[in-house]
Amino acid sequence: MDDLQLNGLGGPLTLALLAVFFGGTLLISLTIRHRKDDADGYMTAGHGIGFGISAASMTATWIWAASMYASATSGYTYGVSGPIHYGLWGALMILFIYPYGRRIRALAPNAHTLAEVMYARHGRSSQLMLAGSNILGSLISLTSNFIAGGALISMLSPFSFSQGVAIIAAGVLLYTLWSGFRASVLTDFVQVCAMLGAVVVIIPAVFFAVGGPQVFVEGSSHVTPEQASFFSSEAFLNQGAPYIAAVLAYAIGNQTIAQRLFAVREDLIKKTFVTATIGYGATIIGIGMLGVVALYAGIKPMDGDPNNLIPQLAATYLGPVLLAVFFVMIIGALASTADSDLSALSAIAMTDVYGRSGLPTNPKTMLMIGRATMIVATAAGLYFAGGRMNILDLLVLVGALWGALVFPVIASFYWDRVTNSAFTVSVLTALACFVPVRFGWIPMDGLLGYVSDVLAVIGVGTVAGLMIFGFFGRRPAIVAGIIASLVTAPFAIGFLHDYAVLSSALIAYAVSTLVCVALSLRNKGRFDFALIKARTDDFGPAEKRPAE
């Protein structure tokens, strides 16, 4: 199985598929462009998007090319339970955040960014932390999608990696630039339909081309007992548990998700998140099973990189028609997330850098800033993609920042004693504890290892409590957190520090929670949550609102 013939699309067919895909999305964007644009519509589409489009947009944004590749890598590395851990926990995180989304939207119905709400709640430092982490996170995500597109085009066509990156970047920018977030959510609907339709066809086609059910019988010699088990502890500790912590952090802190929260009609938030949960889980688990098939079939990834598995399987086992369908599926996945990143970055620049900076605001100027931000962000993504920067290390840092932010952000929307200093100090302290543990800068043996494990156990309780709190309130959450920590402690203390990715993430949760609670309890003042709504109003249409 090592020497497999790779099929390709050819130059003319590749260009035709790209022209149809990006040309179609551009036409959709042009049909929704208003002759008299307003800044609020550009960022949140008027806060009234319906169920179908909002659910499709949430699903498409959560599913990106890297998540498809990562799920397959998980299946290839950990066996049958790998994609389940990757897809199931990622899907459930969408479900777990929706009650928090309803609370945030109730407090700030006309907000545009989560950082803007933090500014209304606390002040400038908490706003800058959220805005800064999202700028970095969206740039990294944008770069990752450009890289995925360039690699796909270079593998399946005569074009080079650099040419592929440039085509993807230009195509996404072209249809997103003028209509902003409106273009992103409407094209997401088309893209997610294409993706889900392709998944239904592609997965069975590859599965039966490789050998069908017989491959699991004949390929059993290629897997270890852990890889063959649905209850693999190795898969849970290395994939499932870290992903639970990471995705919860991503969901709470990420502007691409928050932007859709502020855009969907308020009474449709629950339906939107539940539908996105099902759509994401089914798609990503299904795609991940291709990695399991490759493992059982004894297929070796090209260049030793598991990220090549999905395009490698497609190029090996699919004919021209299905290969074209696969190509459109991956392009749709990466475009749906890349346009969300551009929209998120423009909203941050328009709202947090300019709109809520205290300077006189003009919506026409805001629109210009938003569009200029998209152009600059695309250029930056092209530069980083060409420079082959270590995306994984940057993602680790952004994930840590979001993990450190989760409890202070959630607590700020429910607890009136949380202060700006409690928010800021807790996040910075958590980061200071996370970095040396994650990168192994200090030896984790002896007493320090046990302290790390105890904090990680508290982090387990924090994550469990936050999951329960949104649905059932404070007391059940506290009980769930205590039970989770007590159950975990006998198994975790003494060895959990050996899993740096998991333990460092849990430590970030624990430290930010402990410090935030301790400092907030010292505050005797009370915050009036009604102030948030008054401080996060719409900016108004450009043709009606003069410069202040």
Automatic annotation (TrEMBL):
Location relative to the cell: Membrane
Topology in membrane: Multi-pass membrane protein
Gene3D superfamilies: Sodium/glucose cotransporter
Keywords assigned by UniProt, alphabetized: Membrane, Transmembrane, Transmembrane helix, Transport
TM region positions: 12-32, 44-64, 84-101, 128-153, 159-177, 189-210, 230-252, 273-297, 317-335, 366-385, 391-415, 422-441, 447-469, 476-493, 499-521
Keyword Coiled coil appears in the UniProt entry: no
Domain of life: Bacteria
PROSITE patterns (UniProt xref): NA_SOLUT_SYMP_3
InterPro entries: Na/Glc_symporter_sf (IPR038377), Na/solute_symporter (IPR001734), Sodium:Solute_Symporter (IPR050277)
Entry keyword Disulfide bond: no
PANTHER family: AGR155CP, SODIUM/PROLINE SYMPORTER-RELATED
Family recorded in the similarity comment: Belongs to the sodium:solute symporter (SSF) (TC 2.A.21) family.
Name of the featured protein: Sodium:solute symporter family protein
